[in-house]
Amino acid sequence: MLKLREDNPLDMLRQFSVHFDGDLIEHLGAAKMSIDNNHGKGYVSLYELIPGLTAWTYNIELAEDLVINMEFSKDKPFYFGYNVSGCQLQKFPHESKHKKIRQGQNFIIISEPNTSTEFIIPKNVLYKCCYIIINSRLLLESNIQSKIKLLHDLEENFNFAEDERPYRYFGDIDARIGTYASIIVENKRTDIVGRLITEGSVLRMLGSQIEAHQHDCNTENYRPTLTKSELSRITGTGDHVLEHISEKITIDDIGRHLRISPKKLQAGIRFLYGYSANEYLTKIRLEHSRELMHSTEMNISEICFAVGYQSKSYFSKIFSDTFGTSPSTYRKKYEDANLLFDISYRSLAIDTISGTDVDEIISLARLKNPQFEITGSIIFHRNIFFQIIEGPKKHVLALFDNICKDTRHKNIQVMWKGFKIRREFDDWALATLGDEGELEVQIQGNTKNLELGNLLGELDNSAIDSENLWRKVRNIIKVNANDSAA
């Protein structure tokens, strides 16, 4: 059984990753956990479109029944779902039998705070499902008018008393909802383009589900007028825009590149993303600007030009219209909240490095980093460095820049960089990792021994530097750090 705490989406997916020994790849606002082992094959993805609105998808076949005990938080989230393929079982604590959610079925579940529910995903069946998770409190705090309107629509449709919770609705098989859910589930990308594919389909799926619930009847079949080949080419729009993000680019330019007419390009973008072509181009530029705010020290003017705008005032206006706050306020929010910045990386030490060199690196970190409020952990194993660095963004980026210039290692691969809400190390620690797979690491002042033998036991020296392995090590450290904090 997987005991799943209702938490922020990434921490929930990290729990999945450790349970399944999966490979978790993180991006800003999105992540994907993939498995291909004795537990099963496939992936689970999440897309946090804005705080309070998350899409969670399964596209996976499991070797054993997966029993999930979900512990609900006090935030009373809404769960809108659609089973594209396969089925699942669900029951509340007061029920003796599970209810079956069929393939092609639209369903809605609303939790009762501080209780739990049980889900079962059967084994040996390709299970494809999309959940849209709505946290009303976080959505209201986003201050984005279109999303607040969505919240009001939810309140109008689900305005019931506390004693009517928990709530469950199983709708009819609905082809239109299925079309949008399939697009979300089949989307394998977690970058900007992948998030925008998901966002457009999520909002359309959600609107259809609210409508289906309100009328409780079948909806019309909804089919695109474009061929699969044309739609596939249109999904390349985002990549082309990102390659030329600082340039002026038109729909005609994109159409010529994709070998498709501007009219069909417009129709395809509208179908895939729910935006006009110009709105979609704007979304890509704005999403990239947010990534630059999170991961660089570029000022707002530099970011404005880097994403293709010549007018800082116009950039500020459309950013505010989209995200509910100005670019400068958006960036300052993280600084004022004293959020921590995290960089995790793996690198290959040069052949001549010695144990004395490693001791020197640790001693220097313990001496210098506290004055910049930087903490973290370093592993040195079979000539591989793995570090987690946390602290104020400005200082972490400066430290990482110096690390990249250090000639004692090479082939630096960043596992993750971005903001987080809690510090996971009270000091700078050397985590030791033995060949038998036991990891000893200092977490919040306590030494924890974490068993990694199942990850390391069969790896030879050529495989130990794999990015996949060190993402798993990072996830295990993070999950245990969160357990300590709880």
Question: Can you characterise this structure?
Answer:
This protein is α+β, with helices and mostly antiparallel strands and 486 residues long. The protein is built from 17 helices and 20 strands. The chain has helices at 9-20, 136-141, 145-157, 175-186, 192-215, 228-234, 237-243, 251-258, 262-273, 277-295, 300-306, 312-323, 327-336, 355-368, 393-405, 453-456, 467-485; strands spanning 2-5, 23-27, 30-37, 40-50, 53-62, 66-71, 78-85, 88-91, 99-101, 105-110, 116-121, 127-134, 167-173, 340-349, 375-381, 384-391, 409-420, 428-433, 438-443, 446-451. The chain has an eight-stranded antiparallel β-sheet, sandwiched between helices. A seven-stranded mixed β-sheet has the order 17-14-16-15-18-19-20, sandwiched between helices. The radius of gyration is 24 Å and the shape is globular. Residues 217-224 and 456-464 have low confidence and may be disordered.
Topology:
Layout lengths: L1 E4 L3 H12 L2 E5 L2 E8 L2 E11 L2 E10 L3 E6 L6 E8 L2 E4 L7 E3 L3 E6 L5 E6 L5 E8 L1 H6 L3 H13 L9 E7 L1 H12 L5 H24 L12 H7 L2 H7 L7 H8 L3 H12 L3 H19 L4 H7 L5 H12 L3 H10 L3 E10 L5 H14 L6 E7 L2 E8 L1 H13 L3 E12 L7 E6 L4 E6 L2 E6 L1 H4 L10 H19 L1
Parallel strand pairs: 1-6, 15-18
Antiparallel strand pairs: 2-3, 3-4, 4-5, 5-12, 6-11, 7-10, 7-12, 8-9, 8-11, 10-13, 14-16, 14-17, 15-16, 18-19, 19-20
Helix pairs in contact: 1-17, 4-5
